[in-house]
Every structure is written in C-alpha cells, then in structure tokens.
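Methods — Computational structure assignment.
A single polypeptide chain was analysed. Its primary sequence is given first, followed by the predicted tertiary structure written as structure tokens.
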Amino acid sequence: MGFASDPVNTLAPAWAHEFGRKDTFGGYIVGVFGAGAVTAAFVVAGRVGGSRRRMFATLLLLGGGMVVFALTPWLALALPVLFVAGFGYLASNTHATSRLQLGVDPWERGRVMALWSVAFLGLRPFASLLDGALAGAFGVRVAAVVLALPALGCAAWVAARARTRGWGPARAEIPPA
C-alpha cells in the first residue's frame, strides 16, 4: 500500500509539470489524494474486521486508481481518479491494520503492531528511492504504474485466497461490519 501511494507524495511537483502546471500545483495533487483518504476515514470508521471482498475492493481502488491516474493525459479525469486511489489507500490500510490487530492474541498485539509499523513506514524510503529512480529513467507515468503493481498483486492474492476460503471474514472472532 505504501509503494502505491508513493508516486503522489514523492513526485507531486513532477506530476504538476506532467499536466502542464507549475510545480506548486503538486500541493493540489497531494491534497486530492488526501481528501480521498479523509473520506475513507469517515466511511470506514467504526467498522471492525471485514471481509476479503472489502480488502480486495479497496486494494483494487488503490492500485487501479493509481494506474488510471498515471495513464490518463487529462487532468479533469486524473484528479477524481486520484481521489478514488486515496480512498482505496486509507480504506485498505485501515482494513489490513484492524484485521492484523484482531488476528493476534492481546498480549502479542503491541509487538506485532510495532513490526507492522516498521514494515509499513520503514519501506517508504525505499519506495521513494525506487520511485525517483524509475521516474528519472522512464518518466513519472511508468514509475506510478510500477509502484501500483504491488497493490494490484495483493488484490489478486486476496482474490485467490477468497476462492479457496470464501469471501467472508478470515477468522470467526472478527465480528461482521
């Protein structure tokens, strides 16, 4: 999830130039992504656990939204799609975090969440490095598509697991949303 969102944060000024705007327009690009994330916070607030179907959908919104954002030449389409990607980013992150917390024993939760934070936040500098290298070599559009692939791959993995185990909650302890 962190990799897919990185092209928005790291390359916002380059995206502004890509759409024929001044680099200060990058703030609006980040803002639209953030507005989608804030909307997701209001929509998913209070929902505990959830289904594989929801995880699949939110990962697809993130990865697919970033791919469409990267490939569209029209700013009028790019910004609404970026809003959708921001929604998918926070919704999938919230969903995965809550499933992880509910899936471990209470006495292990602090350690597991510390490792989750290290993995999630610790990979961001590497995503930025990869993002910048790809953008420098092949352009911002290629970089965004490549960094969206892990989110799409995770969505495919969730769908494959759901085919064998069903689309419902992963554990019986997770109450339905």
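Note: Helices lie at 2-10, 12-18, 26-44, 52-71, 75-103, 109-122, 124-138, 140-165.
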